[in-house]
Every structure is written in structure tokens, then in C-alpha cells.
């Protein structure tokens, strides 16, 4: 890797955030299947909320998805604001002002 490429890579990595994007101001009601492995999006950039689509690999490399396997079939509320203290489950943090005032991501223009 030449010096210019190295500088570009360092600049890119420095722009990576460690704070998640608020994907939704409400939780997602989801039916989970026992024994199935799920990857909950922790960065907020996924287009398949509340689950990971791999977008963090380019936009938030310092934030990894939370992987989990439920013991039983269940319906749960998964966090959409990405700030829950009980991730991947909602703990009501989305009701706080800093979440309610946050800008939501916009869909890319075609």
C-alpha cells in the first residue's frame, strides 16, 4: 500500500463513528423462532431494521451487530433507537428527548 492509499485509509477510519444512528423512534415488534440465530443491528444504518444487513462494514466499522439465539418462540419488542440499556430489547429509552429530537436517516435518492 503506497503512502497516499495509507493516508486515505487512515482518514476513512477516523471518520467512523462509535455512536449509533437512531434508526427509529419506536421499537420493532418481532416474532422470533427458538434456536434461530439473529443479528440485531446496533449501528442504525441497516436498511433491514431491526436486523443487520452488513452496512456497518462500510459506515460504522466500530459498531458490530448483536447476535442472539432465543430459547423459545416469542414475540418481543426490539430496540429501534439503538440506545437501549437492554439491547437488543427495548427498555423505553426511545421516549427520551435526545431520541425524539434526533434526525432519522433518509432513504437514498434514486
UniProtKB/TrEMBL annotation:
InterPro entries: CISD, FeS-contain_CDGSH-typ, MitoNEET_CISD. One of its GO terms (molecular function) is 2 iron, 2 sulfur cluster binding. GO terms for cellular component: mitochondrion. Keywords: 2Fe-2S, Iron, Iron-sulfur, Metal-binding. The keyword Calcium does not apply. It holds the Pfam family zf-CDGSH. This is Iron-binding zinc finger CDGSH type domain-containing protein. Residues 25-62, 63-100 form the Iron-binding zinc finger CDGSH type domain. The keyword Metal-binding applies. Its cofactor is [2Fe-2S] cluster.
Amino acid at each position: 500500500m503506497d503512502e497516499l492509499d495509507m493516508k486515505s485509509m487512515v482518514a476513512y477510519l477516523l471518520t467512523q463513528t462509535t455512536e449509533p444512528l437512531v434508526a427509529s423512534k419506536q421499537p420493532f415488534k418481532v416474532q422470533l423462532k427458538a434456536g434461530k440465530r439473529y443479528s440485531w443491528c446496533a449501528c442504525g444504518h441497516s436498511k433491514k431494521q431491526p436486523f443487520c444487513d452488513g452496512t456497518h462494514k462500510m459506515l460504522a466499522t466500530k459498531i458490530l451487530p448483536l447476535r442472539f439465539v432465543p430459547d423459545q418462540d416469542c414475540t418481543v419488542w426490539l430496540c429501534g433507537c439503538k440506545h437501549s440499556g437492554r439491547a437488543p430489547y427495548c427498555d423505553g429509552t426511545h421516549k427520551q428527548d435526545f431520541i425524539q429530537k434526533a434526525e432519522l436517516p433518509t432513504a437514498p435518492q434514486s
